[in-house]
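To the team - LYEYTBR6 complex, inputs and output below.
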Amino acid sequence: MATALRRLAKCSVSARLLSFAGHSRGRRGHFARPCTVVAQRNFSSASTMTVDLDSSTGIAVMKLHSPPVNSLSLDFLTEIAISLEKLEMNKGCRGVVVTSALPKIFSAGLDILEMYGKSPERCGEFWRAVQEMWLKFYSSRLVTVAAINGSSPAGGCLLSMTCDYRIMADNPRYSIGLNETQLGIVAPFWFKDTMVNTVGHRTAEIALQLGLLYSPQDALKIGMVDELVPEEKLVSTATEAMARWFAIPDHARQITKSAMRKPTIDKLLSARETDISNFVSFITKDSIQKSLKLYLENLRKKKA
Ligand SMILES: CC/C=C\C/C=C\CCCC/C=C/C(=O)SCCNC(=O)CCNC(=O)[C@H](O)C(C)(C)COP(=O)(O)OP(=O)(O)OC[C@H]1O[C@@H](n2cnc3c(N)ncnc32)[C@H](O)[C@@H]1OP(=O)(O)O
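Output:
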């Protein structure tokens, strides 16, 4: 099933930029089922998420549910990307709220187990799926709002930064940021670019080098998130925020979004294969594997 999903994801890449500029590629029936609430719910055999589309508002809520920490494995990334693709193709959908169904965690970022002790081939496949998820979200025609209801390190922060707007639960126990350097690894250029586009160059420089994780209050101060609300109001605030974006004619908003993001997207598209081989050669180095091993051990020790 997951392999079939990945194949489908690869086939649809070339259509992305068309939809980005507001052109419809969306012939119904491209997928086996139309994108309705029930079809979405049934779509994922692993039940790693629910996607509820309210046809009266055009807002879908995508709730990530991959215990224990919504870490982004190859299969999970593929499911997220395909779910977004299905929403993109549904003319009744104008926006998506991304949130977590797990308590206290939005997403723990990339699944470290996908980067530790894996073959170069598997690492390459994994990295392509990370790129694909980023490309789909960053270039989405939809209004995307992240409702960040828990900690969101590294890849979790990246996912939220691909969205148009971020609302975080005002809980000082949660943190968010690109903390890669703390693991002894390096955020690739398109993670860095997304961060720069979100918080500006100087703040990104400090945040990335030090691998900083910010409290919600500090994340608000630097512009990593746009709003803080009590956790119970998160999804309702996200759907309310969506109304401001829906008030703008779709084509004008989409073309503007494209103008803002296209250079960053094109940069990855033109270097995609090199980026994969850089990742594979970096992550499979003995020294990096040792760092990851240590980091995993510390994560486990913390619990014991
Ligand atoms: C030159 C350069 C060229 C190319 C680029 C090359 C390189 C690489 C770029 C890679 C970019 C990487 C991006 C990433 O996203 S890396 C992942 C970063 N994530 C983290 O650091 C988060 C780690 N986790 C935590 O801090 C906590 O777990 C968290 C999320 C705050 C939750 O805390 P808590 O509720 O207390 O839960 P536990 O810590 O007990 O965790 C439960 C369970 O989950 C396991 N786990 C946690 N996070 C991950 C993860 N990201 N991947 C896999 N597994 C994870 C944890 O070990 C526990 O497992 P157990 O078996 O003990 O139950």
